[in-house]
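User: Can you help me understand a structure? I only have the sequence.
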Amino acid sequence: MASLFNAWRKALSEYKPRKIRGAVWYRAVVPSRKRTILAMDGALIYGGRYNNAGEFGALYLSKTKKGCAAEVTRRPAHPTKYVVGKIKVTLGKVCDLTDPELLKKLKITKTRLTADDWDEPQALGELVREAGYEGMVVPSAAGDFNNLVIFVDRLAGTSRVELEEVKPLPLI
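Assistant: Let's start by predicting it. Here is the structure, written out as tokens:
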């Protein structure tokens, strides 16, 4: 695994970061969490695909409302009611893990990033964060959607994550 980590570090050091300027992304939460929709407590406590529990938090967003619905209904025994936040995002340093050229340099596939085993995505998320990236665009494991993982503690300069509105999310 050490040689894989070295390949990842090299590829990340050579990668030209992407910027996200005022793009809209979405996040689904249960209604009781709507006032803290931008909080990362769950990811910090339980971990997520791109972060280990207890190490650092991450804010997981989806590019579309349909993507949010797919993400939450993918979970077994999911609640039946959700709200979705419309979130305006401006980031200066983003790693795009949907870029086929970058995936080739990282020697990783979309299939491995979206597999049920989170070991590699979590290790890659940690390296991306350590390399100073504010976030990552990633493929969704719930369908043909893209997600955004934001390391809020890494936001710099003019980077912002702003909640614009919260509405009920019809589950498809």
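Now, to help you interpret it: The chain has a mean pLDDT of 93. The helical segments are 2-14, 41-46, 65-74, 100-106, 110-113, 119-130. Let me know which part you'd like to focus on.
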